[in-house]
Amino acid sequence: MTLEQLTTFFGWMSVLNITFLLLATIGLSLLRPVAVRLHTVFFSLNEDALNRAYFNYLANLKILTLVLCVAPWLALKLM
Q: Given its phi and psi angles, is residue 26 left (phi above 0), alpha (psi -120 to 50 degrees) or beta?
């Protein structure tokens, strides 16, 4: 693969992952009561534990997107 192909690949991967992160954030923000009700029934967790789990999920997704998608794309763009 050439540098141009890798840059394009990481650019589109970044776009897709950032879009998924935004949709997950919006979904959890708008549908929190439904999600809490479902996850409480399925996993027997209280609301505080679920809020922490949602926050950790979004934080980890953001970190992985930045480290594995955006940083390589940015590094390739600077080359």
A: alpha
SS3 49: helix
| Annotated domain spans of the chain | 3-78
List, as own/partner pairs, every contact residues 61-64 make where C-beta atoms lie below 8 angstroms and the sequence separation is at least 24, other chains included: 61/20, 61/21, 61/24, 62/21, 64/17
> What is the mean pLDDT, run by run of 10 residues, along the chain of 79 residues?
94 98 96 93 91 96 97 95
Distance CA 46, CA 11 (A): 39
Distance CA 66, CA 6 (A): 16
Contact present, 70 and 13 (Cβ < 8 Å): no
Residues 18 and 73: their CA atoms lie apart, in Å, by: 13
pLDDT of residue 1: 86
